[in-house]
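Submission checklist for the structure archive. All mandatory fields must be present; incomplete records are returned to the submitter.

[x] Identifier: ECF transporter S component
[x] Organism: Fervidicella metallireducens AeB
[x] Residue count: 183
[x] Sequence attached
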Amino acid sequence: MNTKTNDLVKAGLLLSLGILLPIIFHQFKLGGPVFLPMHIPVLLAGFIAGKKYGFLVGILTPFLSSVFTGMPPIYPTAVSMAFELGTYGLISGLLFETIKSENKITKTYISLIIAMLAGRIVSGIANYILFTFAMGKPYLLKMFLTSAFITPIPGIIIQLILIPFLVIFLSKVTITGGQNFER
């Protein structure tokens, strides 16, 4: 299988997982804003399918999830999440491809942390515009800090533990056709 097809298949699988994981979490009454189940496949898409597919998976996942499952609501949540998740996928893939480090764990953590911060900043900007200008409601710094850094502490911890483990693990796994998940 050629690299483009391989990356497209990975992206499709992770897009599907981005729709499925929130459903599973909600079945166990584990809230999306706390555990961030949609973020995991998007970040992984950047790492294992590259920046372009990571960006596309990030943009499409909240909208498709909203259409198929009703969560998150399209406006303003899915719109804001599309900016945030698109940034996650783009930045994680871009940095993972460009950072020159032999230590894959260091490279993964640097890419992950910067992507997580960039995505949250983009989310804050998107929410500020959506709430303040489009909806006529204030979006305060306290709201941003709470929704981006306080409420999702469990999800942030899960991402910091799980994503590097999965990136390292998947880089060692060989799939049919002799290709592995490594970029």
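[x] Structure attached
Curator remark: Residues 46 and 150 are 25 Å apart (CA to CA). Residues 3-168 form a domain with the Arp2/3 complex 21 kDa subunit ARPC3 fold (CATH 1.10.1760.20).
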